[in-house]
Specification:
Layout (H helix, E strand, L loop, with lengths): L1 H17 L7 E6 L4 E4 L3 H25 L8 E4 L4 E6 L3 E7 L8
Antiparallel strand pairs: 1-2, 1-5, 3-4, 4-5
């Protein structure tokens, strides 16, 4: 129902507000339909990141389904030298976290 979806969105936002706010961490919470619920980026940057990462998520989901039709794609983690990207899709939402993997490391 519509009311249950609103309550769910409010609960998700509350949980995100409880996360530590590290300045190099980027959070994007979007509905599967494409509407952004919460982001730490500008509208333009959010659209750019979400477009590319949504394509990657779709391809990863297809790969999992092709390899094993009984399995379900639940999370994607990609790490490069400078970024770590974690994508957690759900039936209604997609959570994207981009962070510096070297936070807290001593130089």
């Amino acid at each position: 129902s519509c009311r249950a979806r609103i309550i769910c969105a409010i609960d998700v936002r509350k949980q995100l507000n409880c996360l530590p706010s590290f300045s190099p961490t980027i959070l994007i919470l979007r509905r599967i339909t494409g509407a952004t619920l919460q982001t730490t980026l500008s509208e333009e940057q959010t659209a750019e990141h979400a477009a590319v990462l949504s394509q990657l998520t779709s391809r990863a989901s297809n790969l999992v389904r092709d390899l094993d039709p009984t399995d379900e794609f639940s999370m994607l983690r990609v790490r490069s030298r400078n970024r770590e990207i974690m994508i957690a899709p759900d039936k209604e939402f997609i959570l994207i976290v981009i962070q510096n993997p070297h936070i807290g490391e001593s130089s």
